[in-house]
Structure formats: C-alpha cells, structure tokens
C-alpha cells in the first residue's frame, strides 16, 4: 500500500545531498496531519524520524516544531485513541536506536500538552494497562528505555501502585515470584537508583508511589553529593521535620541563601528566626568583598543591625571614610569610632604610594594643567595607564561615562578629570591624548586595558584619541592565568597587593576624597613597578611562570587607523621601541 492511500500528501523538501560532488534533489512524503484513522504507530514514527533527519533547522527548533506537529496529530483521530496511540509509540520507539530517547521525550511532552486541553481521551483505561506493562518491561530490562522516560510514563498516564498490582496479578498466575509483593519489588528497583546515585530519579519514584521509608541518612547523602534539587524535593515531600533538617544542614554548610529560600517558601520563620538575618549578612559581605558598597547599603534597607554589620565590614576593609559616612547617615552615635578599629586594618599588608616611589599626585581639570601634564608625560619613556568610572547597578543599562584617566610616570601620577576637560576644552584634550597614546617613543602600560579603551571610546565617541594607540603593553597578557586581578599580580611580583575597597565608589563626585585619589594613583603607578621588576628579573623564576626572563617586547601591540592593516591588535614591528633596557630599574 502506498503512502498516499494511507492519508499522506506530498510536500516537497529540497535536500542537498552530495554524491560524487553532485547535488541531487530528493522529495520526502510527509503526512498532512489531517487523518490518522489508518496510520499505524510504526509508520507515524518512521515519518517523524524522516522529518527530523532531513529538516534544515537547528535541533532545538526542530524539536519544538515536531512537538507541535505531534500535538496536532493527537487531535486527528489516532486509533484506537490518542492515549493508546502514544503508549504503542513508546513501546515501539526502542527499535529506533539513538532516536529513541529524544523522540520519547518529544511524544510524552506533546501528549502532556494534549491532556491539558482535551476533556477526555476516551481510551485512558486501555492506555493505562499498556503503559503499566511498558513500565514493568522497562524495569525488568526487556524494553530499553531511559530511566527518566520510565518516570514520565508513570506521571503522564497517572499510574498508581494499585494499577501496577492489578496488571502484575496476571504475572502471578504464571508463577512470577517477583510480583508477589509489588511494593517491595518497586522499592528494590528504586534502591538501585539510590546506589547508583541517580537521586532525582529515585526521589521522583518515591514521591510518585508515596514511599516514605528512607530518612535522614538519605537526605544527608544527597547533600554530600551536591544533589540539592533532589534533596529539596525529597524534604518537601516528607514534610516539615525533614525540611527543618534540610535547613539546618544548609546552615551548617554555610549555604545561607538556600536555607533562607526554604524557610521563606515553607513558612519556617518561627523555627529559624536567625536564618534570614544570617543570609542578609552573608549577602552584604559578598557585596563588600566586590566593593559594591552602595548596593550593600541599599540591601540593608535601613535595618540598624545590618547597617552596623556593614560598618564593621567597612572597618575590616580599611574603608574608614565609608565608616564615618554610614555612622553619620544613620546616627550611629554609640557605635565605636573608625579610628579605634584602624589597627584591625593595619594587619592587612597593602601597597602604598611611598613604597612605589610616587612623590606627587596631580589633579588636572583645566587647560594649563593639561598642558603641563602632557609635557611631563611626553618626556617619559614608560607610563602606566588606568581609568575609573562610576558603577551602574541597573541591569541592562549602559555604563556611565569614564570619569577620570590616570597616567603615571616614575615619580608623578596625573589624574585627568575627563568629564570637565571634555566639557571645557575637548579639542585640546583630544590633541594632548592623541600625542601621548600614539607616540612611538612612550611605552604605555595597562592591565586589561583594551576594555578601558573600549569604554573610553564609547564615552567620548567624537574624540579621535581613543580610536588608535601605539606602543601599548598589557601587563595581563604577560602572565598565564593571572589570579586575583591586578592586586593578585602585585602581590605575586611585589610582595603585597592593592586595597580594592574603593574601586566601585562614586568617581563622579567632586572633589574626590584623598583616599580615592590615592587608590586611583596606585592602580597606574603599580604597573610601572611590576614592569621594572619583571624586566630586572630579580623575582623568583616561579613567580614569572617558570621563566627566568619574560620577553616583554613581544607583547607590545598597536592599533593604528590604517586601512591597509587589520583593525585588530597587531604586533609592533616597524615602529621604534623606547629606550628601556632589560636591566633598567
């Protein structure tokens, strides 16, 4: 019997098939999804496979399209009924080999959607019997289906323990002792999943059959194996005592967010009054470690206890002006003064400007200062570059404009107020920075500076100075897998890191605080000292990634506006190099 006689109509799909360098166009007969009265499940599955194999969409889109198609099919009179048709399809699918698992999920999910809209299938009783037999054949091993499909079959056909016992009674007549106690047989089957650490499957089955024999040890085992979703589902099924046990396990393991969410979801505030506060403190600490002080303050939401904890974190980080700011804003008169806790901060060893040999920090926000800064920088052989901008915590919004740019020489650090200079003397600013950034005589040092350049170009798009650069050496690229950012690299090479507590402060406020100025100056000045130490190769070979000496010249890059060259960063070849010797310190 041909396909057209079984209710199929022809749809042409053009396929490019390479056979001996020639393309052949083929046609596949696809079902019109209008009448399944005389279509057997095996034929339907074969055509479904052909649709998938020869479709030209990506796998995910093909899956969704075919899922919709199967859903429509179930509304078009499959015989002897939609539920039975699906059950037979699931019985047959293992013969399709590698397509079995994916198509099983596809058909089950389509059937699940169908059941949401259909008043009744009319064949649910017959389909359930077939589904139970299929499930028993799966757990016996005579039908090869994935364990997750077995669970889905139980769910979508609403198979209960009594349904299995009824069908299994037919096997008892044949003296099959395995089914004399169906519940015990299922428990043994589920225990196999527990032993193989397939915890989610085990939990799904235990919950489906309302088996509550496993207890605390099972919960702890799942947590130890980091199967948290399974543990939470199991505890929810078991009830309040198990949920309380899970919360305590999370608290003991410092998983405070997970504990807090369970307490909130299951109304356990009375049993765990401290969890909420501990979670909030943990969240504040993480934000403080990222220097997101404004966000941390917003999260505290005026809660005095949380604000005091935030003050303590600021003290611990050495952010003493933040301590005074919070104490003044929230009238914390009884709170110990910041100076009394300064000793705590002094226990941390961070670099300072004196150790780096910096003699002066110069703020540049007007024409004369910009000219003097440019003259000094153009007389330098090596400079360090960095920039700062106010963080923007609104998700999806654009970053704020770059506020300042730091340029450090051996003894001085110039901090350019880009926002004011751009407003007052944009042409002069553009000319001065063009001379500096494109000079072949000045080696410019940065750390992950291509991101800064991108931000500068976005902030000041009409300036030409940030579109090209010459003689740039990104210190980050000289080390494999640098950990801890610039501070971590400084600690590795110079023996002490940088205090990064102010990196996310308000860089648009004027005037900047002295601590902000020192922070900004350090980020640029430390690059020069790291460079000199690497060139001098007086540090240990281990700190230099196993090399006695890093050939830093090979890492110099430039990005010049030349149509004949690639727009990407390229290695410098013809431009003259600065007169910096490897042993110059």
Automatic annotation (TrEMBL):
Highest taxon of source: Eukaryota
Protein name, UniProt field: 3'-5' exonuclease domain-containing protein
Limits of the 3'-5' exonuclease domain: 361-539
Segments forming a coiled coil: none
Signal sequence annotation: none
Renumbered residue ranges of the record's region Disordered: 563-585
SUPFAM superfamilies according to UniProt: Ribonuclease H-like (SSF53098)
Gene Ontology MF term list: 3'-5' exonuclease activity; nucleic acid binding
